[in-house]
Write a structure and sequence with these properties.
alpha/beta; eight-stranded mixed beta sheet; 22 strands; 22% strand; single chain
Length: 415
């Protein structure tokens, strides 16, 4: 039964419609709804809705360029020194990789977790296996298995685990593959009401890649990392087929220069590429989203004709393990996006909107950067390290990714 306390809370926050169909539900459905209601922070959702109403599109202030290291400019000796330092950390078992794989392949027309999507190079291979091959190769090189953590979501966790079991974990030691789920947040309509996905289920969405810090702390992942003696943790998305989840050069560069966190960048292909760019904001590291950067900054070039704000963030980051403790406790701000979301209306009908009708809330991993005075940024070559699969056709599609993957696979350094 829905407790009297919960009924009072729903009335207080104007969300009593969530139990409007309670009398029609089966015992199992009632239990599911009751359990979900107990997980929701209604005060937070009210605060987030107020935030959407108070948001003002103001140009960002305090923005200035940030320096970065350029891998192509390093001498052979510098590369060797960083490589050896990185391999030392790997051989000592102080390194782990986290793959963020909570999304579905819907935009690609793929009915399943995005990591199960396959490309042909020329044999068919899934995005999960691509990352696994790189980790296996590096593990063999350093003489020990790199622990691999995979962040799933409520909607794809079971299917992802089943995919790994059916494929024998692609030959990776099962004890070194750890799955954990990111958290979810309810979606709100434009009046601040939580949406019903079913009469017994509140519509929720994953809380964004910035939710990795909270998920790792609350799901016991950071504790497991420390138990294993891990000091450095890679985090990257599943959709970049050229991602290097264990790159000794990046590891060594950050460790040698005493950075607590860092990431890779590429030069944006044009002024308005849909990628956030590295910069400083009020003297601290920051990534300004492509939707928020003013045109004069996006287009600004230096005397040599290069973009002043040209280093695009490619969601390839490395952190000292303590960062996860700090950021998991601190928490990151949520950003609202207006999306199309089907829902059950007051008459019990399913409504399929033809325009954005609901707020989805996400936190961004790169908001963690501004909690630190400095970070290491390593500019790498796009053709060798960035081939995301985001669109069904055109740029950043399976076709472009397959071509770049095949070319990079010819080089041993593609690891």
């Amino acid at each position: 039964m829905v407790s009297e306390e919960m009924r009072e809370k729903l009335n207080l926050y104007g969300q009593a419609h969530l139990i409007g169909f309670y009398g029609e539900l089966s015992a199992a459905e009632k239990s599911q709804l009751e359990n979900q209601l107990e997980t929701i922070d209604f005060a937070l959702m009210e605060r987030l809705f107020r935030q959407t109403q108070e948001q003002k599109a103001e140009p960002p202030a305090g923005i200035e360029p940030i320096p970065c290291a350029v891998e192509a400019a390093w001498t052979t000796q510098e590369k060797q020194n960083y490589y050896l330092r990185g391999m030392e950390i790997l051989r000592d078992g102080k390194y782990a990789a986290v793959t963020m794989a909570g999304g579905q392949g819907t935009r690609l027309g793929h009915p399943g977790p995005k990591g199960t999507f396959r490309i042909c190079v020329p044999e068919e291979i899934s995005l999960f296996e691509i990352q696994c091959r790189r980790l296996k190769a590096r593990s063999e090189e350093c003489g020990r298995t790199i622990p691999w953590y995979i962040m799933t979501s409520e909607e794809n966790d079971a299917e992802t685990k089943r995919f790994f079991r059916e494929n024998g974990f692609f030959g990776y030691p099962e004890e070194d593959v750890v799955f954990f789920r990111q958290f979810m947040l309810p979606m709100l309509d434009q009046n601040g009401k939580l949406l019903l996905e079913e009469k017994y289920k509140i519509r929720e969405g994953a809380d964004g890649h910035g939710g990795i810090f909270r998920a790792m702390l609350k799901r016991g992942v950071t504790e497991d990392l420390k138990r294993r003696g891990i000091e450095w943790v890679y985090t990257g998305g599943i959709d970049n087929v050229l991602a290097r989840p264990a790159d000794p050069l990046l590891i060594g560069y950050l460790a040698a220069n005493h950075y607590e966190l860092g990431g890779k960048s590429i030069i944006k292909r044009d002024a308005y590429e849909k990628a956030g760019v590295f910069c400083r904001k009020n003297g601290r590291p920051f990534v300004i989203e492509y939707t928020e950067i003013p045109a004069e900054l996006a287009e600004q070039r230096d005397g040599a004709g290069a973009f002043v704000y040209g280093d695009a963030h490619i969601l390839c980051n490395l952190f000292r393990v303590d960062v996860f403790d700090k950021m998991g406790e601190e928490g990151l701000p949520y950003h609202a996006a207006c999306k199309k979301a089907s829902y059950i209306d007051a008459q019990g009908r399913r409504i399929e909107p033809d325009r954005p009708n609901a707020y989805k809330f996400e936190s961004f991993l790169f908001d963690a950067f501004s909690f630190y005075q400095k970070m290491g940024i390593l500019r790498v070559e796009r053709e060798r390290e960035f081939a995301p699969i985001k669109n069904r056709t055109g740029e950043d599609s399976p076709e472009t990714a397959q071509k770049l993957y095949a070319e990079a696979a010819k080089e041993r350094s593609a690891l």
